[in-house]
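[audit] Reproducing an earlier prediction to check determinism. Same input, same settings, fresh worker. If the tokens differ from the archived copy the diff job will pick it up downstream; this log only records the rerun itself.
[audit] input (207 residues):
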Amino acid sequence: MAKREEWAELATSVLPATFFGRPAEQVAPELVGCWLIRRLQTGEQLRGLIVETEAYAQQEPACHGSRRRSPQNETLFGEPGRFYVYLTYGIHHCVNLVTGCLDEASGVLLRAVQIPDEPARVAAGPGLLARRFGIDRRHDGLPARPDSGLWLAPRLLPPGMDGKLTQTTRVGISQAQELPWRWYLRSSPCVSRRARGDRLVRPGAGL
């Protein structure tokens, strides 16, 4: 259970760039339970607990960098620890963190976050997440650091939340669907899509 002083430190804590310098499939599950933080123009912070992630790597066809390097996906080949933001279907923005090493396409998609004191489904999906945090292509390439106004803080679960993860296949893609490269916090009601047969057990609901 988190102590009061730990919650106070959340406002200034940050994941170092070295955290992201590993394969996406290693980083993705470790990002679940971390916090996405954006500093608003008012100086206040919008914080969301990351509850669902997906990994993508150059060697598999669902990754944006699997075919070629282009101006649109250049950030994905850049330094780990930066945000890679793209527009899907011309409508929704998706927020990723670049992982791995320089010149190799590797990244983690943030699929859902849980925002304290807000409706459970307000950021339960990549497009909803980007919309709620006001993230778009202008944030592409920004380092995940407080001085950029958008960063990630280390793992810290709210009191009483179970930290168990479910590992399953990715969703919303047409290739490499068999890879089990999606992870989510099983106790969170904010997951975009639960694995088949996995239902949310609320406190007191029994098994």
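[audit] rerun output stored. Observation attached for the diff report: The longest helix spans residues 24-31.
[audit] end
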